[in-house]
Design brief:
Elements lengths: L3 E2 L2 H11 L3 E2 L4 E2 L6 E7 L4 E6 L9 H15 L4 E6 L12 H7 L2
Parallel strand pairs: 1-4, 5-6
Antiparallel strand pairs: 2-3, 4-5
Helix pairs in contact: 1-2
């Protein structure tokens, strides 16, 4: 997993919160699935920009997963505006799953 960030300490906190957000169809959290691409912090604007993807553009649970991710980051950074953006470039693939995720899935 290689999440881009401009603040490693705060990113660690955000990722810990995001580990509680599961893709309900797979049963694995969005961090171990490799769905989180970037988490950047703007201290002047008090804004967090999170860029993530879904396993497919047509994920039926995409809206729910995105909203749960936004809420998870908001809970640990209540004073920030959370700007969560979906991207499909690069598109997700199973190679993005973390080692822990692979063990969980029995791979």
């Amino acid at each position: 997993m290689n999440v881009k960030t401009n603040n490693n300490l705060k990113c660690t906190v955000a990722l810990a919160a995001l580990e509680h957000v599961d893709d309900p169809e797979i049963g694995l959290n969005v961090v171990d699935l490799g769905l989180i691409y970037e988490v950047n912090f703007d201290e002047t604007e008090k804004k967090i920009t999170c860029i993530m993807t879904l396993t497919t553009e047509f994920c039926p649970m995409g809206e729910s997963i995105s909203e749960n991710a936004r809420n998870a980051v908001q809970q640990v950074f209540p004073e920030y505006l959370i700007d969560l953006n979906l991207t499909f470039d690069p598109s997700w693939n199973p190679e993005m799953i973390s080692e822990e995720g692979r063990k969980f899935l029995g791979r």
